[in-house]
Design goal:
By secondary structure, this protein is of the alpha/beta class. It has two domains: 27-113, Rossmann fold, CATH 3.40.50.10860; 139-272, Rossmann fold, CATH 3.40.50.720. Helices cover 40% and strands 17% of the residues. It has helices spanning 6-26, 43-59, 74-86, 105-111, 123-131, 139-150, 170-178, 198-203, 254-257, 271-290; strands at residues 2-3, 33-39, 62-68, 92-95, 159-163, 187-191, 207-210, 227-231, 235-238, 246-249, 261-264. Strands 1-11-8-7-5-6 form a six-stranded parallel sheet. Strands 3-2-4 form a three-stranded parallel sheet, with helices on both faces. Helix 1 packs parallel to helix 10. The model has no long low-confidence stretch (mean pLDDT 95).
Length: 296
Amino acid sequence: MTLLDGKQTSNEIKDELAVEVELFVKSGGKQPHLAAILVGNDGASKTYVNAKVKACDKVGFKSTLVKLEDTTSQSELLSEVEKLNNNPDVDGFIVQLPLPSHIDEQAVLEAIHPEKDVDGFHPVNVGKMALGLDGFLPATPYGILQLLERYKVETEGKTCVVVGRSHIVGSPMSILLSQNKYPGNCTVTLAHSRTRNLAKLCANADMLIVALGKPKFITQDMVKEGAIIVDVGITRVSALDTVSGYRLHGDVDFENVAEKCSFITPVPGGVGPMTIVSLLKNTLKATRHKGAEVIT
């Protein structure tokens, strides 16, 4: 069994990005600038956004964090989005999800200019992804592709079951892995909570991408011998014996499943760090586009 170590891989990519940014700026390019809007005080979101700010510092990016109260209206949030759209120094930005229930999430995502949409959620970028055109890939699926590539995981001809059909992970992941490129060329089934015989479907898959948000949902009997497992889920579970009062669990029962796998991601330290470096890569790409440089 090989551990797909997202923490180590992301650090390697950040080191590479730091060199790339330094050379880019020395050659006359602008310093990349990533901004984030955080609405409310969700603990997990705050932790995640802070990690993005630290990552920006590490690779030589400028970063801006716009903090708004959870009582912020939709129109007020859209106004902040428009400010960042019109700020020429900001190359890319994200609105941290989830948003408070009174705000229309889709309306906010569609308000972000596609050329600054480094999370890859705008319909323009989703459409480009589906057609195999150049654009910004959704950050988490992009991170997963990089992780598979860095570990030289063979995907061609594999049967892959993606469990979870969200627009953030499951749906784009199913599209990307079915495309005629590496990593990809899989035969993909997109499964969800209404899928019949899900356990049997998973047990026959060469690869499982799991993004449900249900801790330890995938058990040993649902995994094929030698399977490739990418666990996207991360849930805080109460644990009184810890200082924090909780433990983080993925959607896969790692302790009992790992021994059957050829490759598997840990939680934490798997997909999460790769999502952050994907945002950085998308932001550098946006900066280069603004400078009219050719992206290879």
